[in-house]
Amino acid sequence: MKIIKPHISKLERKNYKWIYLFLLPSFIIFATFYIQPIFTVIYTSFTKWDGFNKPKFIGLENYIRLFNNAAFKGSLKNLLIWAIIATIFHVGFGVLVAFAIFKKPFGWKFTRAVFMIPNVISAAAWAMIYRFIFNDDMGMINNLVRKFNPDFHIQWFYKSPFAFIAVTLTWLFYAVIVTLIVLNDLFAIPSELFEASRVDGASNLQIVRHIQLPLCRNAIGTSIIASVTARVAMYEQIALTTAGGPGDDTMNLPIILVKSVLDLKYGYANANGVIMFILGLLVLWIINKLFRMNERVY
């Protein structure tokens, strides 16, 4: 089969220089605020640097110390568990709400608005709210349980394994971004596809499985990328509740990074930052492959 290449006229080629000219400011800003800092982080991760004196090259020493650190190993374990929870439950819940709203039941606009309100509150504010919700003396959770079990006393954020559960609940059900992304793709599906499938005798479940979910794969994949990378960079929820404890139960990479910076170990902190950067790229690559996000949907 002969592939016909599109013909580009000389005039179009001539106009390319103007396109490049308009793109130049964006490229300069991107190079200044993104590319240059990334290269600085990578370079200084191989140095001993206190942030004030000149960095001293020490090779892989920071990375060796990092991978021998029990807190770092605990962080990777926690991140893996949180990534699985985010992919299955966090994104799954957001997709489920999107499909429910798409059916436009009675009061669906009100439900969408109410679902969105808690999600506009910052992660730091939610962390402080949850400190009171899980408080043993005045918290809603423990006081509700004590209605049935008067001897129930748990310090959720300070006792293992409850701290991990409490931290997870601070973000688990706040999936409005997932819902909006998937809902946008659902509304973009041509209604003719639904009409044709019903004429062919397809049930509602078959429409969801064979039409809606496949056509929303880019939205779901994007949601998984956003959710998992948010777990890589999650800081406020942990810093304001458990600070990584008890032990290393809720330790994660940003907590290690910030503690290293406060101890003036910038090289070590940047080694941790490089690992976070690599994990983000790895998540992006894996989800792109699994969901075939570079392929056209229609």
Automatic annotation (TrEMBL):
Q: Does the keyword Membrane apply?
A: yes
CC per GO annotation:
plasma membrane
Which residue range or ranges hold the ABC transmembrane type-1 domain? 76-287
Q: Its topology with respect to the membrane?
A: Multi-pass membrane protein
Indicate the secretion signal residues.
none
**InterPro entries listed in its UniProt record:** ABC_transporter_permease, MetI-like, MetI-like_sf
Record field: transmembrane: 21-46, 79-102, 114-134, 162-183, 266-287
Phylogenetic placement of the source organism: Bacteria, Bacillati, Bacillota, Clostridia, Lachnospirales
| This protein's UniProt keywords | Cell membrane, Membrane, Transmembrane, Transmembrane helix, Transport
Q: Name one GO biological process term.
A: transmembrane transport
Which family does the similarity line name?
Belongs to the binding-protein-dependent transport system permease family.
Database matches in CDD domains: TM_PBP2
Q: What is this protein called?
A: ABC transporter, permease protein
Intracellular or extracellular location(s)? Cell membrane
Species whose genome carries this gene: Catonella morbi ATCC 51271
